[in-house]
């Protein structure tokens, strides 16, 4: 059965973009899908050889300029990669996805020429990854006021505190730390982002245990115990960390929306196929029942709507005209509608939907992250409503 998402992308994409999506889709089908269940049952992270194969495809350097060894692509390419890889596994998709949108992108958009020359070639080749240190044990939605501190000294900065929920921490060579540097400053001018080597003295990493979502993705806790870095470790401007964070998260929210739509695309295909194969009541498929049809139709509508909206916002992101509210809206809508509809799809499929080999339960569980990652939906609604109250 042809993938429904492909029929929409064929209308929405130019030939070169569609060809790229097809290459990543086929890679996901041949290299990821057959091995995924084994990785899950063995409770292992995405294996190094799978990461190496994604690097060989150039996925880690998608939007990085060619002069730094990247592919010279755009944010649409990143989103298409998320759709293609996320169809089978969010964990696999987020590995290059976070390495780009949360790792390489801040350097690409806010770094000095020296920082770009030092880091981007290896990031583009997948030889190293950056992790973005944003969330903390005591700070989630209030990310603009971090508890991790960086105190200025004659030789640079000294960092203290802890970051958590840091995606790709296990594989990362450096962490971009969003730290409090000016506690008495005005809103948006209190923090600074600094590039810190993971092997620096005083940096301690531990994989977070007990996680039941994105189980093949690395999620780490990183402690900074009096870590010293030089002055040139600052990414962006001193006390301009909020701007770096916002610039980073706008693109990241589009990628999270893509992951939500990839789950919806998988569930739509799985459910409509099952509904025609499942024979009940006088030897007829359950797909003839209107309630089953309603779920399938609603998934199809949500998928088409989300794709049109998301790809339009990618163009706005590339043009520099996207607003924080727009990026937040598409992330909230895609994650919420996909979560609700995948749960209904599981009801249509019944008990078999609970089996790991069927695939729906993986997407059902992983969709939770799309509702809280890159800003929880509850917190983002507070951002979205502000222009509506501007009277």
What does this structure look like?
This protein has 391 residues and is α+β, with helices and mostly antiparallel strands. It has three domains: 4-128, Butyryl-Coa Dehydrogenase, subunit A, domain 1 (Orthogonal Bundle), CATH 1.10.540.10; 131-242, Beta Barrel (Butyryl-CoA Dehydrogenase, subunit A, domain 2), CATH 2.40.110.10; 249-389, Butyryl-CoA Dehydrogenase, subunit A, domain 3, CATH 1.20.140.10. The chain is built from eleven helices and ten strands. The protein has helices at residues 4-12, 15-42, 48-56, 75-86, 90-110, 113-125, 241-277, 290-319, 324-349, 360-372, 377-385; strands at residues 130-133, 149-152, 156-167, 174-180, 191-197, 203-207, 219-230, 234-235, 279-280, 284-285. The chain has a four-stranded mixed sheet. It has a four-stranded antiparallel sheet with strand order 2-3-7-6, covered by helices on one side. The protein has a two-stranded antiparallel sheet with strand order 9-10. Strand 2 and strand 3 (156-167) form a beta hairpin. Helix 5 packs antiparallel against helix 7 (241-277). It is globular and about 80 Å long. The N and C termini lie far apart (51 Å).
Order of strands, widest sheet: 1-4-5-8
Domains (count): 3
**Structural class of the secondary elements?**
alpha+beta
Number of strands: 10
Query: What would you report as the Rg, rounded to the nearest angstrom?
Result: 21 Å
Strand count, sense and barrel status of the largest sheet are: 4 strands, mixed
Class of the largest domain, according to the CATH hierarchy? Mainly Alpha
Average pLDDT rating = 95
- Please name the fourth-level CATH homologous superfamily of the largest domain: Butyryl-CoA Dehydrogenase, subunit A, domain 3
CATH level 3 topology of the largest domain:
Butyryl-CoA Dehydrogenase, subunit A, domain 3
Measured as a percent range, the helix fraction is: 40-55%
How would you spell out the order of helices and strands?
HHHHHHEEEEEEEEHEEHHHH
Architecture of the largest domain, CATH level 2? Up-down Bundle
In whole angstroms, the N-to-C terminal distance is 51 Å
Determine the number of helices (DSSP H or I, runs of at least 4 residues).
11
Query: Per the principal axes of the C-alpha atoms, what is the gross shape?
Result: globular
């Amino acid at each position: 059965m042809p993938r429904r998402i492909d029929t929409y992308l064929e209308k929405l994409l130019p030939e070169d973009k569609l060809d790229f999506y097809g290459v990543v889709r086929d890679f996901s089908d041949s290299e990821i899908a057959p091995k995924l269940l084994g990785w899950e049952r063995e409770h292992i992270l995405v294996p190094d050889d799978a990461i190496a194969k994604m690097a060989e495809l150039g996925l880690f350097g998608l939007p990085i300029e060619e002069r730094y060894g990247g592919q010279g692509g755009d944010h649409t390419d990143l989103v298409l990669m998320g759709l293609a890889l996320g169809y089978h596994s969010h964990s696999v998709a987020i590995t290059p996805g976070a390495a780009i949108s949360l790792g390489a992108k801040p350097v690409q958009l806010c770094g000095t020429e020296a920082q770009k020359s030092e880091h981007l070639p290896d990031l583009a080749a997948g030889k190293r990854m950056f992790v973005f240190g944003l969330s903390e044990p005591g700070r989630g939605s209030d990310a603009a006021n971090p508890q991790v501190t960086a105190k200025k000294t004659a030789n640079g900065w000294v960092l203290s505190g802890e970051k958590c929920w840091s995606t790709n921490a296990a594989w990362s060579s450096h962490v971009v730390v969003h730290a409090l540097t000016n506690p008495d400053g005005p809103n948006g001018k209190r923090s600074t982002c600094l590039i810190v080597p993971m092997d620096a003295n005083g940096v301690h990493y531990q994989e977070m245990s007990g996680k039941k979502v994105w189980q093949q993705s690395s999620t780490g806790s990183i402690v900074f115990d009096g870590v010293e870095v030089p002055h040139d470790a600052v990414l962006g401007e001193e006390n301009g960390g909020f701007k770096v964070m916002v610039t980073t998260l706008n693109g990241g929210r589009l990628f999270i929306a893509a992951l939500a739509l990839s789950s919806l695309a998988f569930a739509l295909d799985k459910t409509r196929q099952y509904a025609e194969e499942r024979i009940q009541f006088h030897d007829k498929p359950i797909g003839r029942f209107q309630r089953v049809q309603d779920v399938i139709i609603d998934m199809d509508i949500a998928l088409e709507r989300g794709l049109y909206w998301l790809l339009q916002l990618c163009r706005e992101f590339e043009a520099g005209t996207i607003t924080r509210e727009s990026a937040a809206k598409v992330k909230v809508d895609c994650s919420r509608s996909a979560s609700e509809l995948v749960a209904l799809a599981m009801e249509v499929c019944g008990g078999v939907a609970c089996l790991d080999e069927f695939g729906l339960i993986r997407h059902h569980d992983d969709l939770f992250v799309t509702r809280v990652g890159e800003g929880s939906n509850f917190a983002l609604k507070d951002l979205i409503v502000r222009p509506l109250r501007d009277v």
